[in-house]
Design brief:
Length: 235
């Protein structure tokens, strides 16, 4: 009788201890990871979690989208540098743009490859963190390996180099020279165009006007040639 009672109690205990759901496991994993990143946490809570199980293509797409936004910001910065003729900054930003674009296109290719070997959870959740110094609540995304619920960390530089063996090495001296040259050619072209307008207004003969137009056309051709040769400084 006693043995039967003990067995019944064990069975009830086992039934009562339900295995945690996938959502509960993911919440706990995120909370544990976040607690390792912050000091003196008083309270941490993950809720409103959405998740899907996929492959590494999901994080490649996410990183590609981030690089696309970064690429747009770099182009805006370069346009601002052009206004002040900051040629060294233009060269630096141009190479950063070229590198970012290569990485962006590479990640899009990686995202399009079928990959069933590595399972990854794509998470979107709300998190509340409180500590003696701060309290913040925000929406976040995360990617966790399904096998151990550890964060997926991808070094894009290493991944790109491993696949392509490409090194971004360049000598900026020629690029600085061509930027300086094109600026000078643009100034000369604008001056000739102004003089042409004045001579047309004064009724200058057609021969003089044609000479102006020929010189302006030559300057435009040289500027276009330089831009084509050093396209990465202008695209």
């Amino acid at each position: 009788m006693i043995e039967s009672l003990i067995i019944a109690t064990v069975i009830i205990s086992i039934i009562g201890c339900k295995a945690p759901t996938t959502e509960e496991k993911l919440k706990e994993a995120v909370e544990n990871l976040k607690s390792q990143q912050y000091k003196d946490i008083e309270y941490i809570k993950v809720d409103s979690i959405r998740y899907s199980l996929g492959s590494l293509s999901g994080i490649h797409t996410y990183n590609a989208d981030f690089l696309k936004e970064h690429l747009d910001r770099l182009r805006d910065l370069r346009e601002s540098a052009r206004l002040t003729h900051s040629n060294p900054l233009i060269v630096e930003l141009s190479h950063r743009i070229m590198k970012t674009r290569r990485h962006y296109e590479f990640l899009l290719q990686e995202a399009g490859k079928p990959d069933t070997s590595t399972k990854v959870y794509n998470l979107d959740y709300n998190i509340l963190i409180k500590s003696p110094s701060q309290s913040k609540e925000r929406r976040e995304k995360a990617f966790l390996y399904a096998i151990n619920l550890q964060p997926v960390r991808i070094n894009i530089d290493s991944l790109f180099f491993k696949a392509t063996n490409y090194k971004d090495e360049y000598d900026s001296s020629s690029e600085l020279s061509v930027l300086k040259m094109n600026t000078e050619l643009e100034v000369k072209r604008e001056r000739l165009q102004y003089e042409l307008r004045m001579d047309i207004a004064r009724g200058m003969n057609r021969g003089v006007i044609l000479q102006y137009e020929l010189e302006i056309a030559k300057l435009r051709s040289q500027i276009a040639h330089n831009k084509m040769k050093y396209y990465w400084l202008y695209d």
